[in-house]
Amino acid sequence: MGSLIERHGGVPVPAPALREIRSPPSPETLAFAADLERGAFDMVVLLTGVGTRALVDEVAEVLPRERFVAALSRLRMDSDRSHDAAASGPLSPALRVVARGPKPAAVLREMGIAGFVQVPSPNTYKELLATLDTTFGARLSGMRVAVQEYGVAPETLYEGLRARGVHVTPVQVYTWALPEDTAPLRRALGKLARGESNIALFTTRAQVENLFLVAAEEGIEAEVREALARSFVGSIGPVCSEALRAERIEPDVEANPPKMGHLVKESAARYQEALGRKGAR
Asked: β-strands 19-22, 43-46: how paired?
C-alpha cells in the first residue's frame, strides 16, 4: 500500500493498527466439526476467506479436509426448494452454504464445492440478510446456522438472524489485537493530531477501533477526532465505513470495488477537492 501511495505522489506514513491471532482449536470449534459431520446444522455461513482456510486447518484433527468437504456438500436444499431452484435455472444455489463475498467463495471452489449461495457486493451484513431472505424466506425460522466469525462477533448480523428465528452457533477461528509494536501507530497519531498528516486511509473495521483505543492511551483522542474531521478520510469498503460512522467520522471516499489499489487511486483523485471543501468550512 505504501508503494501505491508513492506511485501517486504521496508520502506514506505506515501505521500498523492490528494483527491477526490464530486461535488454537477450542472445544467449541471441535464440537462444531463433530456436529457438522453428524448433520446437526441446517446451514453454514462463511464470512471470510482466511477464516474459512483457518477453520479447515483447525478442525482437521477431528474432521479431515475430505470429510469436511463431504459434510458441507450434504447441506443440500430441502427437496421442494431444490425443485424450485432447478426450475429457475442452472445458477440457482443447491447448497445451504453461504459465502459472504468473493474470498470465502474462492476457498469453497478450491475445495471443489459448488452450488453455494454467494452474497453480492458490497458484502455487508445487510446484503447477507437480504440474500438469505430472498433464498430461504420464511424457511429461515428454526434453522440451526453455524457462522464462521472474522475476528469479532458480528452482533448486528446475529441480531438479524435471531429476529428471523435462526439458532446461531458462532465459530471463532481467529481474533484481532494490537500490533506487538505500537510505536509506528503512536507516531502516526501524533503527526495526525499536530496537522502534519492530512490524509488517513483505513482498510478494516478493527483498525478504526484500535486507532481510537491507542489515541485515548496517548491522551490525544480529542485532537485526533478533530484532525480527522479536517482531514481526507478514505475507507476500503462498507464495513469499514460503518465503523468510521460509528465514531462520527464520515469517509470522503469509499473504494469501489473494495480493494487497496482502488482506495489509493480514488483518494489521489479526490483528496484535493475534499480538503479544499473542508478548509472552506
From this structure: unpaired
